[in-house]
């Protein structure tokens, strides 16, 4: 890590896939920011940098990218989509306008972090460890164990792009998901302590961590290699999380999702199926909010995504007032637009679900809240419905990066309850109607949290 112009790194001993972290192995050295070269094209025909790549939707920074490329022996580091880092020894594509590299890094503000098919490229300085500039610190056993756990969880930044870190005191192994360490083979907590897992774990058990650097294969997406004659809808009421589920489906299947509409903001965020004709058969499924019989019967099957109407209405009102990631102000919640919005949209929440239950030919009902609580089982159901074989690597990637680019902060909510008693009576009656319709079609009813019953 870097601190005050000084970088610290751990020297590694043992096999290539094994790392032992000890205080005496800590080396500190000077580090400097690289030189910004500009914005460059980076697409299928013009690859600006052709070396290694790392991918981190949560905390990518320009310094992390530069350090990674430098430590790997590359001269240039390029950032794309605000979350991807590419390395290389020469720039092989034309320069692009600077405004094309307008996305900010997910882990910091103020630094250019590329765009869609564009790299913000830096020439990195040599940052190899020099002579020791700081003394090793003696750590108590329990403190050292906690340091080992933290370092083990990020060991792939030194060892390569491997999705799992496996801890067995005092060693940390970097590995792929496999039949040995599979996501569905975890045991209960009786074999380890929640307060000091590394110190208390039984010697015949391993503690497995997901690393922050992902397998680059998770990033690769494409249109279906053969056009499908069957159209699958991903249908939801607005504000129900359709974009989030599209993100998950693309991560776990590797195929683009399409849309009945066109949203330039989504396209610029990497949803390339936005520009494809929705009936082309090249997308794994197609987003739609339509609820008319004619529109429903255009699809051969559908994933019907349902969310708590209270949450859906608030999410859609936020979007209308402040965009995909913004929040409505208290003044907007108190304005006349809010009750008018509820009186118009709340009946649509119910009619949307009822119409798809009535006219949909082949349905998989997915509840947003169940997807949040049990992501992996729900993703398995979705991929099975889509007739897609799913790899453990992609499932791990989807779990690690489930938030994606469109996670609205829950911290900024109205300072008061925007739903009046009359609104609640109306919405609750719609909840009961949809719940009964689901059960009459032999689907599970709505989650209990929607309304006390």
Give a short summary of the structure:
The chain is an alpha+beta fold and 453 residues long.
Structure classification: alpha+beta
Count of the separate structural domains: 3
CATH class of the largest domain equals Alpha Beta
Would you report the number of β strands?
17
* Percent helix range: 25-40%
* CATH level 3 topology of the largest domain: Rossmann fold
Terminus-to-terminus distance: 53 Å
The poorly predicted ranges are: 1-32, 127-151, 153-160, 189-200
Largest sheet: 5 strands, antiparallel
Portion in strands:
15-25%
Main β-sheet, spatial strand arrangement: 5-9-7-8-6
Total of DSSP H or I helical runs spanning 4+ residues: 14
Mean pLDDT: 77
Radius of gyration: 25 Å
Which geometry do the CA atoms define? globular
Helix and strand layout, with pairings?
Layout: E1 2-3, E2 6-10, E3 18-19, E4 26-30, E5 35-41, E6 53-55, H1 62-71, E7 76-80, E8 84-88, E9 118-123, H2 141-152, H3 156-159, E10 164-168, E11 171-175, H4 197-200, E12 207-210, E13 232-236, H5 242-253, E14 258-259, H6 264-268, E15 286-288, H7 293-296, E16 301-306, H8 309-322, H9 330-334, H10 337-359, E17 363-367, H11 368-373, H12 375-385, H13 392-400, H14 421-440
Parallel strand pairs: 13-15, 13-16, 14-15, 16-17
Antiparallel strand pairs: 1-2, 2-4, 3-11, 5-9, 6-8, 7-8, 7-9, 10-11, 10-12
Helix pairs in contact: 5-13, 8-10, 10-14
